[in-house]
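RECORD TYPE: protein structure
NAME: Pyruvate dehydrogenase [acetyl-transferring]-phosphatase 2, mitochondrial-like
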Amino acid sequence: MYRFTLSLKARRLPVAAGVVAAFGSIWLTCKDQLYYSNSYGSLLWQYFVPSFLKTGSAPNIPGKDSSNPQSSRKLPHVEIRRNEKFVPVNFGVVSHYESNNLASNEPIEDRNAEYRVLDGLLFGVFDGHSGWQCAEEVMNRLPFYFAFSLASKHGIRDPKELDKIFSRVGQLAGTQVARTSAKDILGPKAHEFVENGNLVNTGIDQQLRSAYSLLDNDIVYEALPEVNGYDHEKIMKGLSGACAITAYVQGNDLYVANSGDCRAVLGSKTPDGGWLATPLSLDQNAHNHDETDRVQLEHPGEEFIIWNGRLLGHLQPFRAFGDVIFKWDSQLHKEFLNNIYGRVVMPPHVYRTPPYLTAEPVVTHHSLESEDKFLVIATDGLWDMMSSNAAVQCVGELLDSGDLSHYDQDENAVQFNGASQLIQEALGGDDDIKVNKLLNAPKHIRRAVRDDITITVVYFTER
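PREDICTED:
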């Protein structure tokens, strides 16, 4: 039965060319069982982490819910600060944002991007699994699919008109997407949507759902061998998968669209000067009763639909882009997937009524008020090691301190970065031994002690 728990990302399926190490198999087999235990952290460190990592205090392991993060006000480790960004925006209610990522996988499978989309701003974090390819595809194309959904409300279907709409989509920082024409960006399913004269004529929440679903339909379709002529790159975009969370800010309206187990948390100032954490998304996994009820209703009577806390015993998130293994029909499994993997990927008695996975997001709306100061969106690599409340307290304390400047070891002036500070706290705060051991964990066990972490902190103007 344990064949259902093999994974590359220490929680999901292997890529076609990959081989899962024995340690990874053992880790996966036991991870969910340990997760339900209150002593998850101590069990993990006792059985899976080599003795050199046991010295000193243990890190803030998943399941630990500290509402009082260590407040060292110490500049984060130089390795943590390597990829940090501070980007002034000054658009509407958004003053600026900060971002950072820390890799566990090589290469990192997370992605993040920030776009201006028509009259609003879109901030996205994308958590890849079984490879980085799907996460990168979603990062590059989703903002345009969202713009397309917004435009369709007004009946815009002409390619030239769509090109004008797409010209109003641009990244706030970093390399611009090379493709900007509707012909290049929109896939066959989106073009079919246009040709059929469909309209997304409801609110922004439905337009976000439409954008996610249309893009996923195209990724899954474009991965078909008979469609792409056995193009390895396109096949890998479908074989790999990605959880995605985006926050769209338009005026005082904040919309969060979540597909998977990334998370968005709003930080607000309370009347007594404290900080309040308000989750604007729920992790879509076996711990979410709405999600378990949904998949069981969609596939009644299937005993393996949720097994060992995973979808069909394999996948931890219950919503995701790509992952064609959970979406293609049984015939495609037999003719294509089983040949790639060299085995039966899903036994017929388990894989009975596909598709089992959707990328359609759950969308929440929040009207921003003067007390709302920032939004943290991050992949589960952060939330595995830090609670939502602890994250808000960490960033809030930075804001409360006033002076965010500091000097590094070379006496250079450095600005404190909320995303970097969150990573530092997640890895151990001012416990240098703990932080260094987690940062420098050898490749063969690194993924067992920490995941890729990607964070964006969006700051709102004083109102």
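COMMENT: The longest strand covers residues 120-129.
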